[in-house]
Amino acid sequence: MSKVYDLIVIGAGPAGLSAALYAGRSKLSTLVLEKSKTGGQIVITHEVANYPGSVREATGPSLIGRMVEQVVEFGAEIKADNVIDVDFSGDIKIVKGEKEEYQAKAVIIATGATPRKMGCPGEAEFTGKGVSYCATCDADFFEDFEVFVIGGGDTAVEEAMYLTKFARKVTIVHRRDELRAAKSIQEKAFKNDKLEFMWDSTVEELRGDGILETAVFRNLKTGELTEFHADEEDGTFGLFAFVGYVPHSDTFKGHIEMDDWGYIKTDDEMRTNVEGVFAAGDIRPKALRQVVTATADGAIAATLAEKYMEEKF
Asked: What is the CATH number of the domain that holds 193?
C-alpha cells in the first residue's frame, strides 16, 4: 500500500474506462479496479448501433476492447479486485479490495447499475434473443413485430410509446390495474392507437427454441394463465422489461450521499458531497443510461478530478 495514485477509478465499464483514458492522457497515475468483466453491461450487447462512430465494428466487446487498448496505451493500470470498503475521510482516499488496499488523491466511482430482472424462467436464456432492457438500443430489431413492455412507471410507459414507432403493436403488461406513470404520460399513452394494456398481470415463463417464441402471463387476480405465441411469419417477438435498475452502491453506503434508491448524488460536474470523490455513469441518477452518456460522465469526472488535485495538492 506504499504507492499513492493520483486517481483510482472503481469500475471498468464505459464510464470508468473513459475516466481512465482522460486521466492517463493527462499524465495522472491512474488505477482502474474491476471486480468482474471489463466493460460492464455493454460486453453482453451483440450490436451497438447508436454509439457515434460504431458503424462497422458495432459490437459491445469490440467497442470495449478498443477502449481498454486506449486506456492502457495512455498508461493507466487495470487490476482485477473487488472493492469491499472505502475510507474517504482524509485527503488521501483509501480503497480496500479483497486482494489488497489502495490509496489515491482522488476517486471516481463508476460501478454502474443493472436492470432489475423479472425473475421468471427463461428470462436469462432469452436475454438478447427477444428479451431486452433498453428500447433505445434494440427497438429497431423489432420493426413491424409485436412487442410487450413489462412495467407501469414513467420509464416503462415512455419506452412503450417509443417502441410504437417501430413495432406494429405494443402491449404494456402491468401488475396493477392502473399505471404508476405521471398523469401527463398516461394521457399520451391512452391516446396511442398502437398501445394496448394487460392489467393485473406478470410474466410467468418464457419459452422458445434458441429465440423467444412464447410468453406465459399470469393474471394476479384470477390466477389464469395466458400463452402468447409468436406469429408464424415473424418467428419471434420482443419483450422489454422496465421494472427498475439496481445501482451497485452498497459498498459506499455511509461513506457518501445517495438518493432513496441508492444512486450516488452528484452535481453536473460529477462531484459528490465528499471532496475528492466523483461518480460517473449509471451509478448516478440520470434520464438516459447509454454508453454515450456514461463516457461523457467519465470524461467530465476525470477532468474535474484533475482540477481538484491541482488546487488541493
From this structure: 3.50.50.60
